[in-house]
């Protein structure tokens, strides 16, 4: 049996975290092949010495919606650092505000190609980030970064095993407590963190139930949503359980994914105030997991009808996938 220390993430109330960052409905990119001219003569070159005509030596930069950035407030944005966090991949970076985007809606931004590439984990073809948030270091009060984060985010991937991110909490499962036939692997591309968790069988040879667990401290009890990123390369759906505090048990069928990673969302998961333990507990075999993301309930997204014992209707804000969620304690 392999046993690793439980890690603990002490989090502020999630609504406070969300308020520190502005949640964009979409982030796009500009300046790629065939669009090189769009990066020339950025708006902010007239308002900041940090921004030149050709953005020389700058890889991570952004254009903020013209509904926010204008001549009258240019000094509050131009040449300043902007922190961006993508909840879909768990990646964050710091970029430079250099321009304004006339086609972006309120609160949305256009990223440089390299910034988008990093935040999306090299998925430029995705085209749009829909789970990203941002704040301005020493910016206007509405969009200012929290003071505690002014020096915590860099232009590289976070080395923390779990983080309070824009709008929620990441739990990198490879850093959790592992029991039974659970191991850390690296074979499947595009995982975040330092690897991913592989469940080989429901029990080890010694009879220990296979699981991976983490502690999460919350100030407020209630319902939260969780997103699980997983891979199921088998030819059929596989079932495992998501367990919170050994009492709230969710039987989840993970649809087949081939070689890709996919996300599954469960809404209305009950947590208590203070310390909670969340587990992925094996009932089936050959499944891989990257992270669990916990965020506020409810979330207004696409409606997805699923079967559970009390005939509830739940919603998935991400993908309509081949999976069945059965909630024992709804």
Sum this structure up briefly:
This protein is mainly beta. It has helices at 14-20, 113-119; strands spanning 8-10, 22-23, 27-30, 61-65, 81-86, 91-101, 109-112, 132-136, 162-165, 168-172, 177-179, 182-185, 196-199, 211-218, 222-231, 238-244, 248-254, 262-271, 274-282, 287-296, 302-304, 314-316, 325-327.
Report on the architecture of this protein:
This protein is elongated. The protein contains two helices and 23 strands. It folds into two domains: 8-15 and 167-327, Galactose-binding domain-like (Jelly Rolls), CATH 2.60.120; 22-156, Beta Barrel (Barwin-like endoglucanases), CATH 2.40.40. By secondary structure, it is mostly beta strands. Strands 1, 11, 14, 16, 17, 19 and 23 form a seven-stranded mixed sheet that branches. A hairpin with a 4-residue loop joins strand 5 and strand 6 (91-101). Mean pLDDT is 78; it is low at 1-19, 148-166 and 299-330.
For this entry, give a set of tags.
elongated; mainly beta; disordered N terminus; signal; disordered C terminus; Jelly Rolls; 7-stranded mixed beta sheet; Barwin-like endoglucanases; 330 residues; CBM6 domain-containing protein; 2 domains; Expansin_CellWall
């Amino acid at each position: 049996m392999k046993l690793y220390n439980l890690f603990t993430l002490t989090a502020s109330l999630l609504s406070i975290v969300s308020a520190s960052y502005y949640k964009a409905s979409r982030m796009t990119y500009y300046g790629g092949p065939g669009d090189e001219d769009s990066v020339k003569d950025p708006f902010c070159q007239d308002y900041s010495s940090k921004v030149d005509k050709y953005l020389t030596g700058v890889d991570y930069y952004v254009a903020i919606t013209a509904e926010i950035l204008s001549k009258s407030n240019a000094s509050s944005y131009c040449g300043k650092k902007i922190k961006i966090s993508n909840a879909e991949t768990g990646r964050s970076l710091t970029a430079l505000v250099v321009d304004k985007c006339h086609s972006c809606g309120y609160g949305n931004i256009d990223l440089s190609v390299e910034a988008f590439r990093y935040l999306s984990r090299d998925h430029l073809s995705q085209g749009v980030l829909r789970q990203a948030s941002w704040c301005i270091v020493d910016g206007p009060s509405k969009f200012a970064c929290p003071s505690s984060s002014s020096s915590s985010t860099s232009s590289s991937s976070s080395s923390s095993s779990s983080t309070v991110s824009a709008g929620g909490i990441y739990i990198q499962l490879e850093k959790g407590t592992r029991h039974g036939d659970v191991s850390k692997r690296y074979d499947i591309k595009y995982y975040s963190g330092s690897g991913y968790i592989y469940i080989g069988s429901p029990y080890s040879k010694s009879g220990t139930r296979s699981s991976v667990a983490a502690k999460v401290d919350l100030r407020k009890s209630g319902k939260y949503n969780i997103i699980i990123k997983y891979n199921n390369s088998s030819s059929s759906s596989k079932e495992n359980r998501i367990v919170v505090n050994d009492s709230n048990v969710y039987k989840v069928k993970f649809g087949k994914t081939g070689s890709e990673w996919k996300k599954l969302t469960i809404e209305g998961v009950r947590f208590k105030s203070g310390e909670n333990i969340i587990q992925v507990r094996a009932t089936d075999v050959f499944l891989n997991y990257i992270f669990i993301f916990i965020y506020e309930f409810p979330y207004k997204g696409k409606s997805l009808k699923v079967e559970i014992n009390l005939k509830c209707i739940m919603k998935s804000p991400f993908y309509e996938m081949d999976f069945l969620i059965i909630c024992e304690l709804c």
